């Protein structure tokens, strides 16, 4: 397999490319909309008694699949010294296996294309969204079972078929999963490969364009896309003084000032507020100060939560609930299953505040403890709350929320609605927003927040420090 | 506080310095030996019934301190798919707090000096060894208690008093502690500070010289020293082509060929067998494939282990045992306490095989699962076993052990006996050994081993990927 190094600008070229060998962006959109409209699936909420293959375990009422596979829903008791609420119990998804979320890339006429799939997930508001080439469980890729393997999986498991470009452990929602991680992979193929039905080759520029629209690119895709650096600065020592830098500037001459600022932030290790050693020290301190103790408990013992015929829900507060759905394909092929999902009634908010410091865009990052965090503290967006509209009215408002209330139009760099993963979450959508504040705006920053450049964030992503909500936002920048 | 960047060679200069402003190496040795000989402590094994302040909890027989502080000894049940033995139970040290291991550095006449302490720990074979400036528990540095604080602690907790150079979370022995980590810190002071009794300023060159001798530098020191890069390559873009590189070569003109090879390996990101992305991918794969499930159980339930009057030990195998010691100071001041320790009867072995690949020294690293691993897999030396002499005779020999049996003299780059931390371990010593094999020696490497340069290892150390045994070995290179 080829192992030659590239000039480090591969992904940048793809990001700057909206024209496509195969179809232009509008043709893709039509294709995608047709896939969405022609899908024959019907999803309906059902009472738990209609569950097929899922059951509540006798003594604990933990919710499990009859095969013992997939995931289970159980209870946890949480104790922490972080935040306002430091003690509570809640249901959580238990799925200790490490799965693969993988995208295949291939170069056509010098440009990287990415193989994406239009895929139905029962929890999506629009059912079909764009997913990575492969979403595989561990039993898939270790071949424990002889079941049908996901298409294209062999390119991620057989090293003779591809070159691995990116391969990182990344976490899932720490508020809903217990220490769940997936391998996020990008592999490059050199030989020609078949494009199966529902699959499509897109440039990064086209994917990011789709990300400027609501609910097209699913969370698994956004998680993988966030790991793809704009520029592989590591491969270009002294990038700022190199000819590669001039090439980039020339490419970007017609882009927006905002795109140029994002670009500068993505390559800037020098003009950052903190040195990278200081960033690591801050993270070390946060992980040392904050404590998190999580004990698994039977689902039936979770205090303040109750079971009804249709859901497991909080007795008084508008949190998520656990529901059952039946999924049916309306075509002649008989496909039907039931499964639990976590339902969210309210739109959430994921927001970064960005601001120029030393002439470079910095992101206000929060060191946050979530009950399912893999290592106590993850780097989260400035604000993240799952019940945005409720919180706005409440007295328990997280810091910096006011920046996202009625922001002036000019300050909004990005604002779309995106879905959490539709295989686990039912109609869980978040407003993804980035707000820029003026350079002279003095913002008082609590100890567990700091300003980082995009280059620093990308360096931290490689080692799994960013939570999925930050990664979702970071996946969404367009340079066009 | 000063925040100016240096030329990235600070630590290198200190490594190359054996002459000292304050005392030469022999004077230091005399001082150290005097401290060791003049210490008035007596440590003796006692039966558990003579424990003072420590007790066995009624139902579980877990071993605890009456204040609930310090640490406890409990049982774990271990299940893994790694290695030959995949299911067992054992006692383990539980100490969930993150403590500080910190060294103060200060520049005198352009050279970094490090403030080390001659400190008694009851488990040391020679009682006194060289420890970091500060070993502090979390209750020390968060000021929960009003007790006496360790000397110099304020330089690690008050940011106005020092500049933090290194601040990383690092793990302890995964075979003996459950997910224990400490902050490993190096802070630079600019103002003059008092040198208390038992403290001494040493250059890195002097410390590494002490590391070429048995049992002088304790494990906590070695853990912190391993985090100090030989060259801060990040700060010198294009180091190999820079004038800094020529300065280094000039400094090293009289050093051994071995020192030059270590130096080249420490700066070499380019001629490595694997790219850094490939290294991360290999680690990701190892963490995905290997599984570890650890359940805490009452100490009294640990199968195959039994309680006697003097120890908790394995019924048939020569593992560690839990014992009680009484510590007494023989001088007029009445100092006396009892505490548990983990006793090891056998010398262990920690060994790296190194080999030139592409002209650069590479280290054969093992991805290893240990029951107390923080994240399932850590990077371990080629060979690590706590009962070396027993294992040599056994049929269950770990891979590569034969390289460390009667090696020819020319292949031994490093061979000393070092102690594990004497506050928890009683007479636990490991042979620390590095063996170089010829470039044309074809070595078959199992999937969970790979060859890495020192530069790659140093990059991984920053993010906590190396276990304490690898770090111990890496702390020991001398460039003199």
Could you describe the 3D structure shown?
Two copies of one chain form a homodimer. Chain A has 480 residues and is an alpha+beta fold. Chain A has a domain of 162 residues: Nucleoside Triphosphate Pyrophosphohydrolase (Alpha-Beta Complex). Helices cover 20% and strands 33% of the residues of chain A. The first copy, chain A, contains twelve helices and 25 strands. In chain A, strands 6, 7, 8, 9, 10, 11 and 12 form a seven-stranded mixed beta sheet that branches. In chain A, strands 18, 19, 20, 21, 22, 24 and 25 form a seven-stranded mixed beta sheet that branches. In chain A, a hairpin with a 2-residue loop joins strand 18 and strand 19. In chain A, helix 6 packs across helix 12 and helix 8 crosses helix 11. The longest helix of chain A is centred in the N-terminal third of the chain and has 14 residues. The radius of gyration of chain A is 22 Å and the shape is globular. Chain A starts with 9 loop residues before the first helix and ends in a 6-residue tail after the last helix. The N terminus of chain A is likely disordered. At the A-B interface, strand 10 and helix 9 of A face strand 10 and helix 9 of B.
């Amino acid at each position: 397999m080829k192992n030659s190094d590239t000039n480090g600008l591969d992904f940048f070229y793809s990001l700057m490319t909206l024209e496509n060998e195969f179809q232009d962006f509008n043709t893709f959109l039509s294709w995608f909309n047709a896939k969405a409209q022609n899908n024959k699936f019907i999803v309906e909420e059902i009472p738990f008694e209609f569950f097929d293959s899922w059951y509540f375990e006798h003594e604990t009422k933990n919710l499990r699949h009859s095969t013992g596979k997939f995931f289970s829903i159980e209870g946890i008791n949480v104790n922490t010294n972080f935040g306002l609420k430091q003690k509570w119990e809640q249901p959580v998804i238990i799925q200790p296996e490490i799965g693969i979320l993988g995208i295949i890339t291939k170069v056509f006429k010098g440009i990287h294309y990415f193989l994406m799939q239009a895929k139905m997930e029962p929890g999506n508001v629009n059912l079909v969204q764009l997913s990575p080439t492969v979403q595989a469980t561990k039993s898939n890729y270790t071949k424990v079972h002889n079941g049908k393997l996901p298409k294209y999986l062999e390119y991620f498991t057989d090293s003779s078929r591809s070159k691995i470009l990116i391969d990182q452990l990344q976490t899932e929602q720490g508020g809903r999963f217990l220490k769940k991680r997936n391998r996020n992979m990008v592999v490059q193929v050199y030989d020609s490969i078949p494009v199966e039905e529902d699959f499509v080759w897109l440039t990064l520029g086209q994917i990011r364009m789709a990300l400027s629209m609501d609910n097209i690119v699913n969370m698994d895709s956004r998680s993988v896309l966030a790991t793809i650096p704009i520029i592989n600065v590591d491969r270009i020592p002294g990038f700022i003084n190199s000819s590669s830098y001039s090439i980039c500037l020339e490419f970007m001459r017609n882009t927006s000032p905002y795109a140029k600022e994002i670009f500068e932030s993505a390559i800037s290790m020098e003009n950052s507020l903190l040195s990278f050693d200081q960033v690591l020290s801050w993270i070390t301190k946060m992980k040392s100060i904050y404590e998190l103790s999580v004990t698994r408990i039977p689902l039936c013992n979770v205090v303040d939560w109750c079971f009804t015929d249709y859901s497991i829900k909080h007795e008084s507060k508008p949190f998520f609930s656990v529901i059952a759905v039946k999924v049916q394909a309306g075509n002649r092929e008989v496909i039907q299953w039931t499964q639990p999902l976590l339902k969210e009634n309210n739109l959430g908010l994921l927001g970064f505040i960005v601001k120029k410091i030393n002439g470079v865009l910095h992101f206000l990052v929060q060191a946050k403890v979530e009950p399912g965090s893999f290592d106590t503290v993850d780097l989260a967006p400035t604000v993240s709350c799952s019940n945005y509209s409720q919180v706005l009215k409440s007295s328990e408002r997280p810091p910096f929320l006011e920046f996202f209330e009625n922001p002036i139009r000019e300050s909004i760099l990005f604002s779309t609605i995106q879905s959490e993963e539709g295989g686990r979450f039912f109609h869980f959508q978040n407003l993804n927003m980035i707000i820029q504040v003026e350079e002279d705006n003095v913002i008082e920053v609590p100890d567990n927040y700091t300003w980082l450049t995009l280059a620093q964030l990308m360096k931290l992503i490689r080692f799994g420090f960013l939570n999925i909500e930050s990664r979702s936002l970071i996946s969404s920048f367009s340079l066009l």
